[in-house]
Amino acid sequence: MKSLPAGTSAGLRAGCEARCPGCAHRFFSALESETRKENWLRQQLLPWQDRLAPIQAVQGEDRWGYRDRVRLSTRWQDGRWQFGLMVRKELIAIPRCPIQSDRVRAMLERLAQVLPPGPVFPMAFFIQAMSQVTLVLKTAVLPETGWADERVGQELTRIGIEGLWLHLHPAAGRRMFAKNGWHLLWGQPHSVDSSGLRYGPTAFQQVLPVLYRRALAEAKAFLAPTAEDVVVDLYSGSGASLTCWIGGGADAVGVELGGKAVECARLNAPQAVLLRGKCADRIPQLEAWLGNQAGTVGRRLLYVNPPRTGLEPEVLEWVVDRLRPARLAYLSCSAGTLRRDLDVLAGSGYRVERITPYDFFPQTYHLETLVLLQEA
Q1: Alpha carbon of 75 to those of 60, 78, 90, 223, 345: distances in Å?
Q2: How big is the CA angle at 264 (ends 179 and 266), to the nearest 5 degrees?
Q3: Same domain, yes or no, for 175 and 238?
Q4: What is the pLDDT along the chain (376 residues), one digit of tens a residue?
Q5: Looking at the structure, do residues 129 and 192 belong to the same domain, yes or no?
């Protein structure tokens, strides 16, 4: 196996599995990785490359052991549980992955010791969202749970775990979660993150909070919402971005598909209006909400943080034809769909003011991009 960059601890080097496909840049220096990402993004967003700001990244040891949110496949093999990534139907075990946090690695080690064997415990996936852990079982029948006793609970507390869930989902695969089948095995249903926001086992959080807060601060400074403005927040997650807008006194509405994320958003941003569902399906409710704000003399502002598929076609059409925000901030995890959507926005009277890449995923080829636009 190749050696990792100088400065990486020996313990982390020892945990790197050479066959793991998850971190394509792990053998590059930080400078080389960031340069490759910036050059790639510049080509993807060629018409606006003159507005590309320097990449925002963490440095040194902060580039390792940062991933406190993981989704791993599981398999019972050789008389023990293995956790890792599936490659051509083979599980590549990564119990000591160097980008996983100490808490994740400790949790995997402990579960391998206490979980029942595969024949009686049909676990398919392990999901950890910081202090909340979910074991996804491909069954509709709740298995025996006596292994999760008080002693195990004490050990989980020591590790930094606050909630352990079983999720029974016979069809788990491409869709990880179902509406029902949730069982809180131990602990509490919600935790509080470093920003003071509540989250549950499925609520989305960015894996590098320090960079995510920086991205939100940049978006907030550009949108600059006031008490006279209204903010539409699409794919609003568990409410981190909503707190930015209502903190400035603006009226805000958020749309999010995940039920548990909406549940947390109601706790984190109680002053905001929350709509659950696909953004395209909630356009009528958004129109009604905006109609009720007709007396507001300020601006319409838009913040979007869509999945890799980008904005739904109906949503993009609605934005450029009817919403017509004065300013919008677009946080993207896919430069390909971002380029597609920017072409439409630029062709509809919006000017790209600034593009800031954020290296939320060191050691990988992934890159998040914040684009700030306003009406020309």
Answers
A1: 34, 10, 10, 47, 45
A2: 110
A3: no
A4: 333 444 454 444 445 667 888 889 988 999 999 999 999 999 999 999 999 999 999 999 999 999 999 999 999 999 999 999 998 889 999 988 999 999 999 999 999 999 999 989 999 999 999 999 999 999 999 999 999 999 999 999 999 999 999 999 999 987 889 889 999 999 999 999 988 999 999 877 788 999 999 999 999 999 999 999 999 999 999 999 999 999 889 999 999 998 889 999 999 999 999 999 999 999 999 999 999 887 667 899 999 999 999 999 999 999 999 999 999 999 999 999 999 999 999 999 999 999 999 999 999 999 999 999 999 8
A5: yes
Q: Supply the DSSP string of 83-102, one letter for each residue.
A: EEEEETTEEEE-TT-TTB-H
What is the number of structural domains in the chain?
Answer: 2
**Residue carrying structure tokens 């394509």:** 24
Question: Token pair of 239, please?
Answer: 């409410």
What's this model's pTM, rounded to 2 decimal places?
0.92
Same domain, 281 and 144: no
Q: Return the ∠ at Cα 154 (arms to 152 and 156), rounded to 5°.
A: 70
Token pair 């914040």: residue: 370
207-219 b/e with 16+ CB inside 10 Å = b? bbbebbeebbebb
Closest CA to 274 of 262, 288, 282, 264: 262
Both 362 and 215 in a single domain?
Answer: yes
Its domain, for residue 247, covers: 209-375
Q: Is residue 55 part of a domain?
A: no
